[in-house]
């Protein structure tokens, strides 16, 4: 296999978000790959707007990135016990694309959150959101980065040995899934 392309989708819009850092660390631990980070900033889904104006360019770009990627990584924060609205909105827009860019796509999900559970609820809900798209969702190991604001050094490198090992194991499993 040539150098695989990984698409990272952060459920947080902030440039310095811990979920972006977690995705970058996942790509680093994956090893040799081309890493592309998606932009999910899109207008709120509205069927009337879709009918009048069609799909936003950002949704078409994201769908194309999903198609082009060999595998996708999604990292979600936990906002009010669920994934971010921005992430759900992006998934809703992509669902409006003709065809299914997610079909049979290897997918690893993870979460980074300020709370003690590390976004466990948000990740569980996100997994449910993905079911209708039929990707090949890895079932684990689960990466729930708790108290995420304390888990990276000043360069954005993940610090905790247990988190590093779990994320490395998930990326090895993703690499194996790509060889399937």
Protein architecture, described:
The mean pLDDT is 95. Strand 3, helix 4 (85-94) and strand 4 (106-112) form a beta-alpha-beta unit. Strands 1, 2, 3, 4, 5 and 6 form a 6-stranded parallel beta sheet that branches. By secondary structure, the protein is of the alpha/beta class. The termini are close together. The protein is built from 6 helices and 6 strands; from the N terminus they run E-H-E-H-H-E-H-E-H-E-E-H. The chain is globular.
Structural class of the secondary structure composition? alpha/beta
Q: Which percent range describes the beta-strand content?
A: 15-25%
Report helical residue fraction: 40-55%
| Cα shape | globular
Q: End-to-end distance, in Å?
A: 11 Å
* Stretches with pLDDT under 50, minimum 5 residues: none
What is the alpha-carbon Rg in Å?
16 Å
Total of helices: 6
Gist?
By secondary structure, this protein is an alpha/beta fold. The chain is built from six helices and six strands, in the order βαβααβαβαββα.
